[in-house]
Design goal:
The protein has 162 residues and is of the alpha/beta class. The chain has one domain (4-161): 3-Layer(aba) Sandwich (Rossmann fold). 33% of the residues lie in helices and 22% in strands. The chain contains 5 helices and 6 strands. The protein has a 6-stranded mixed sheet, sandwiched between helices. The longest helix has 15 residues, at 67-81. It starts with a strand and ends with a helix. The protein binds guanosine-5'-diphosphate (GDP) and magnesium ion. Associates with the 50S ribosomal subunit.
């Protein structure tokens, strides 16, 4: 079976945009409105001749009820089923309390994590990305999922984690 990569993070940080960038197609649903990816959706991807599965998930918000809680549960299931996780943070916003809570959840799960500092569309965003060292997950990979900037280095790190 192919190794499985789960893509997790808060709503609207760019998870589905990153998934589309990695699979090279526009299949994951990108929305300005947060929380549109309700369920786990799996795609096949490859990089440097290695194939893997990539799972797009809905995001979390802390202390939410109803449908959003079930979205959070889907993301937790996705982590359980994954060999490695890409944790996507919006570098233009910085680490929020929700992001910190997700870090705790990731630590409990004990899976290898690659930290994606997304929405770094140009060199001026690199400093924003560097602040995410504070999450304690190692190097924040500065990426623009929208334009493709930095995704090669991120994918190299993903292959090492898988
Ligand atoms: P998700 O909820 O985490 O799956 O986020 P989406 O992929 O649906 O993206 C949410 C919004 O962020 C959309 O308007 C995207 O176009 C935008 N977005 C995603 N990645 C980037 C990026 O690298 N740079 C910028 N500027 N916007 C992005
Ligand atoms: Mg999405």
């Amino acid at each position: 079976p192919l190794p499985v990569l789960a893509v997790v993070g808060r709503p609207n940080v760019g998870k589905s945009t990153l998934v589309n960038r990695i699979i090279g197609r526009r299949e994951a649903v990108v929305e300005d409105r947060p929380g549109v990816t309700r369920d786990r959706v799996t795609y096949e991807a490859h990089w440097n001749g290695r194939r893997f599965k990539i799972v797009d998930t809905g995001g979390w918000e802390q202390d939410v009820l109803g449908i959003d809680a079930s979205v959070a549960a889907q993301a937790e299931f996705a982590i359980e089923a994954a060999d490695a996780v890409v944790f996507v943070v919006d570098a233009t916003v910085g680490a929020t309390d929700t992001d910190e809570a997700v870090v705790k959840l990731l630590r409990r799960a004990g899976k290898p994590v690659v930290l994606c500092a997304n929405k770094v569309d140009g060199p001026s965003g690199e400093a924003d990305a560097a602040t995410l060292w504070s999450l304690g997950l190692g190097e924040p990979y500065a990426v623009s999922s929208l334009h493709g900037r930095g995704t090669g280095d991120l994918l190299d790190a993903i292959l090492e984690a898988l």
